[in-house]
Write a structure and sequence with these properties.
Layout (H helix, E strand, L loop, with lengths): L10 H11 L7 E6 L8 E9 L12 E8 L11 E11 L1 H4 L4 H15 L4 E14 L9 E13 L3 H15 L21
Antiparallel strand pairs: 1-2, 2-3, 3-4, 4-6, 5-6
Helix pairs in contact: 1-4, 3-4
Amino acid sequence: MPADSRSGQGDAFDQAVDQVRAVDVREDLSVREIPAPSGLAPHALAIAGDVRPEESGVDSAYGTGRFILLHDPDEPDPWNGAYRIVCFAQAPLEPEIATDPLVADVAWSWLVDALGSRSARFHSASGTATKTLSKGFGALEAQGEGAQIELRASWSPEGPFGAHMEAWAELVCMLAGLPPGSEGVAVLGSRRSKRG
């Protein structure tokens, strides 16, 4: 990942950012730095990831996500620490899978398992897993039926920060149907949701 200048940020956050930037993700996931949301913390780094993006841009038919590392030396009470990670991951589903009542539970367990497999210690976790079903009508009738899963989560990390980035990257790929060890394997049955 490219390095930017980070004026006014402490050495501790600089080191955390360097750990995140040093992570090598699988080739199926394209990552880039994006502007961090303002107002959440004095210091922030944001990463966007797309699973097998189209050559013409960063749109992905398979899945997308965001990883945000926040640092506030004042240690906000809900964080129970000086750092917080906020993540988002979204992927299309086959409509029949989306009706499974356990899909949301599985998405959350994949996050927890990915963190555990990287020995990425954390506390004060929270999040939501949302599955949606949709059907096009009128001018959108050709889109047919669609479904997607979306996971939004946050937790307070305990170093090293690169392990948390690795876990998020694994989660995004898992939701897109690419489990660990499946680099370069075709994704079958994925449908792109054309609705925003």
